Amino acid sequence: MSEHLSHTLTAEQARTARAYFGWNQLRLASESGLPAHKIKRFEAGSGKSGTYLPDAEFLDALRAFYEERGYRFDDTPVPGANAKESGLVFPEGVVAQVDQRTPRAAGKPAQTSFHHMRIALADPEMGHTLDLIEENEERAAELMRQPVEAGFFGGLAEQTEARHGEVVKLLAENGLLFAKLFGREVGGPPSAEVLASSKRPATHAELLHRLVSDAHLAASGDSTAQARHKAPKPASTLFEALFG
Description:
Residues about 1-5, about 90-105 and about 110-115 have low confidence and may be disordered. This protein has helices at about 1-10, 10-20, 25-30, 35-45, 55-70, 80-85, 125-145, 160-180, 190-195, 205-210, 215-220, 225-230, 240-244, and strands at about 95-100, 110-115. It folds into three domains: about 1-70, 434 Repressor (Amino-terminal Domain); about 80-115, no CATH class; about 125-244, no CATH class. The relative contact order is 0.08. Helix content is about 55%, strand content about 5%.
C-alpha cells in the first residue's frame, strides 16, 4: 500500500509544488481545505521512508488541488493522454478497439477492428484536438437526451432551438477537428481576423470559422480560448447559435 501511495505523490513533490505557488503550509491548508497538521507531517518526511504517510484520499486530493491550478508533476498526463492510454491512438497512427461484448475463448485471438490513420498533427496539438473532440461529444450527448419542447404558439420553444443550435455547432466543430487531425483544413485555413471577429465573414467558410473560432484557437493551445470553450454561453435561438 505504501509503495502505491509513494507513486501517487511524494513529500518532495508536494514541497516543490507549494514552493512554486509561494505559499506557506497554513496558506496551502486554507486554499485546499486539507488539514494543516497532515500537510506539515507529510512534508516533513521523504514520502517513501518518512515516519508519516497519510491516507490515499489525502494524497489524491492534494495532488488534484495542485493539478487543477495548472501545476504539472513529472508524470501528469499530457493533453489527449486518455485516448492514448486507452489504446485508441498509437504513435504509428493505428487505431484499434477490441470487442468487449463477445467472450474470448482460450487460445483464440480477440475480435478487433483496425484502421490506419495518418495523423498529421504532432503533440501537443493532437492532444488538445482529441480533448476538444471528446468534450464536444459528451456535451452533445447530454443535450440530445433533453426532451423537445413545443412553443407557446406552436413550433419549437426557444430553449429547444437553443439546445439544438448548440448541438449543431458542436457537431460542426468535431467535423472540422477530425479533418484537422489528418492535415485537412475544411474551407481553407482560417484567417486571424475572422477568428478575432475583427473582419466580417465574406464566405460560408469564413462564417463557419467564425462560429467555431474558439475550437480553432483551443486546438492550437490558446488557454483563454480553452477556458471559453469549456464554459460556452448557449445562444437564445437557433439563428444566433449558427450566425451569432
